[in-house]
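Hey L., structure's done. Input below.
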Amino acid sequence: MKITFFIYSLSGGGAERVTAHLASHWSDEHEISIATCSSPQEGAYEVSRDVNVVSLNMASESQNVLSGLLNNAKRIRKLRKHLKSTKPDVLISMMTTSNIISALACKGLPIKSIGSERNFPTHPPISPIWNTIRKYTYAELDVLVSQTEATRVWLQRNTKAKNVVTIKNPLVLPLPVQEPIITPPTRGDDDVVILGVGRLVPQKQFDHLISVFAKIKTSFPKCRLLIVGQGPMHDQLQQQIHELGLISSANIQPRVGNIGDWYRHCDILAMTSFSEGFPNTLIEAMAAGKAVISYDCEAGPAEIINHDVTGILVKPNDTAIFHQELLSLVRSKSLRLKLGENARRIALELNIEKIADQWASYFPNYR
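Output:
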């Protein structure tokens, strides 16, 4: 069977990682290709050498809604030409814009089109015109995959998609290692290390985490905060660390290719996002046996964490309760170990073979 993935790029992000995992997993049995809009980029997720990665060179900046429509019309034509040439049996698209392009590019072609929504659909918000386009073009997809039940319900209520299903992200262990390989900072025997992982963007609300950490630091001096990620808020967050007097105890590391080492290095994984899809950082830290604490935002964490059993959920944006719960984890090694041990079960639930088989059940002629 010939399977093509369509995604903007393979650099950074959960959708890109899932694409790399699934493509590599199926490459022993099927003919797999990944079509990207952008040219190859540094830091792209590595895939099996049997996977053919093709850049369609369709990356361009849109200055307004009209230019965005025109650019995407060109992408639809170019992707359709590519599909007619390569003749895949299945096209899997990742994220909203790619789903819209794929739905229209596949129209009338003998290709099973499977779209995948990777965030809760209202975050980041899209313009009313794009929301309308999404509503109606999703009807052209044969299958639409959501990562959570909350997202599936929203898509069924707010789009014309005919067949919406929930498939969680796969977990591949050990986690892949690639450049840059950065060794975590040295820690003392009595240190408690809190880790945050994600893009430095407003959605992740790392400013909340830094503020809470500053309060914890006053009562637990041996606490340390590490944030791994890059993005437009780097300087702002670094300034916050400086203003709160945390230079010696809080560190931002822009990018690492050995994130598994950083999970093993930490004691607690903290997430303060106001919105998520199905956060890989949570499941990866849990599989590493780490205690996790997260805002219970509208989708994602609550379908991963069993509160007080495999981690801690806190009402969104309630920094006072987040501080209280995080401080409890910092103070109690036994609580961290109990939650972390229970959290390891996630590795069995999200095994790549199990998740890949759920995707494959929607392929033509599935056995």
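The mean pLDDT is 93. The longest strand covers residues 2-7.

-- N.
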